[in-house]
Amino acid sequence: MKVLIIEDELHNAKRLKAILEDIDPEIEVLAMLEGVTESINWLKEQDHPDLIFTDVRLTDGLCFEIFSEIKLKCPVIFTSAFDEYALRAFKVNSIDYLLKPIKKEELIKSLHKFKTNPHPSYLGQMLDDVAAILKQQQKNYRTRFLVPVRDSFYTVMIKEVAYFYTEYRTTRAVMPDNQHHILSFTMEELEEQLDPEVFFRVSRQYLINNKSITRINNYFNGKLHIVLNPEPAEKIIMSRDRSRTFKQWLDR
Predict the structure, then answer these.
(1) Are 210 and 248 in contact (CB under 8 A)?
(2) How far apart are CA 61 and CA 167, in angstroms?
(3) Domain ranges, residue 28
(4) Which residues lie closer than 8 Å to 120 by C-beta, 6 or more apart?
(5) With contact defined as beta carbons under 8 Å apart, do 155 and 145 qualify?
(6) Which one, of 111, 242, 40, 14, lies nearest residue 5 by Cα?
(7) CB atoms within 10 A of CB 236
(8) Do 132 and 150 share a domain, yes or no?
(9) Which of 60, 154, 167, 251: CA 20 to 30 A from 70?
(10) Residue 46: which of 60, 58, 31, 34 has the closest Cα?
(11) What does the record give under GO molecular function (predicted)?
(12) How much helix, strand and coil, in percent to the nearest 5, is found in the chain?
């Protein structure tokens, strides 16, 4: 079985590849792609795989932009984190869905489902139906936080936050005047709640507003040094794998 993985987080893509190969050594992962544009170009130039695993939300758009450009010739298994309503919609439409982090047992069930019906005649309509559902429930991204200040509360507007960072399991919002607010959210929760057009997770510790970027410097081995205002306490060095996705995010 030939498989294509579309996932903008390299560690998630590698983990999925490892589980697939552990389940069945004959599974061949043809490529691990990161975004909409890259996937469209690959599918135009290469023979289509037997099965595609894709995250729904990629750095440069929703995966359905790929399917609107390419007439797909194989089934899709989605890997993402949508709410229960959307999950039911996937199941009803017989398009499988795996909640991250992907569990081996669930992946085995999905592969069995694929092998039982590898070429559903209604694939195109299913993709259209699920795309419509996702557009209807496109997130109303968070616009503000209510944070406690002494014996009162203070409203922090999201658009005014320069960046978020985590240290010692504590998450802080940093404002342009370098004022810090402690938040009761993990970075993963923030990443789900904030508009991906505005905020980008440049590392495990930092989630930045594009307006806070003052300079981007080349670093060693294809890495990038991101300079922010206000300047953080430590250098922000972005990995080589993440840097390409980051540049695509900025250049659109």
Answers:
(1) no
(2) 30
(3) 2-136
(4) 75, 94, 126
(5) yes
(6) 14
(7) 19
(8) no
(9) 251
(10) 31
(11) DNA binding; phosphorelay response regulator activity
(12) 35, 30, 35
Q: Cβ distance 190 to 196 under 8 Å?
A: no
Q: Which amino acid is at 81?
A: A
Same domain, 53 and 108: yes
3-state secondary structure of 30: strand
192 vs 207: CA distance, rounded Å: 11
Q: Whole-model pTM?
A: 0.54
| Sign of the dihedral through C-alpha 94, 141, 234, 183 | negative
CB-neighbour burial class of residue 170 (10 A; exposed 0-12, middle 13-18, buried 19+): exposed
31 and 127 fall within a common domain:
yes
HEC profile of 97-156? EEECCCCHHHHHHHHHHHHHCCCCCCHHHHHHHHHHHHHHCCCCCCCEEEEEECCEEEEE
Residue 120 shares a structural domain with residue 28: yes
Q: Do 7 and 113 fall into the same domain?
A: yes
DSSP state of 200: E
Query: Is the domain of 24 the same as that of 119?
Result: yes
Res 166: pLDDT = 93
Instruction: Report DSSP state, residue 33.
Output: E
